[in-house]
Automatic annotation (TrEMBL):
Domain of life: Bacteria
MF terms in GO: heme binding; oxygen binding
Xref: CDD domains: TrHb3_P (cd08916)
Full protein name: Hemoglobin
InterPro entries membership: Globin-like_sf, Globin/Proto
Transmembrane spans: none
Amino acid sequence: MNTATTLDESRIANLVDRFYDKVQADPSIGPIFNAAVHDWPEHKRLLTSFWCSVALRAASYRGNPMSVHRAQPSIRTEHFVRWLELWRETTLEVLDENDAAQMLDYAERIGRSLRMGMGLPDRLDARPLGIPVVGLGKP
């Protein structure tokens, strides 16, 4: 099995562009994103920078994904599940099998971390942990 990557900034930008076009149109997560994102071209540039930092170790992203997601109280586990379904679908459309698998692995790990940080269950059939997230709600 060939494990060499063909990922570069151009391929990641194409992935991000196609993926977020799907997100905008998706009936489940589109309304959440469309309400939060006021400049889609800028958002896509920011997320390209994020994914280049993750996949290429580019160190070009400056931001705090956890605080951005925590600022969206309507995000639930099913939204993460749908996001990941669209991500999986899009990576397989625009990347070769090895690169798609790598990008999916990154996304799964990041999503798990975000859900944990937001106090959300990891699966749809799981109950929330009941652990308060510092800085959210009442003590």
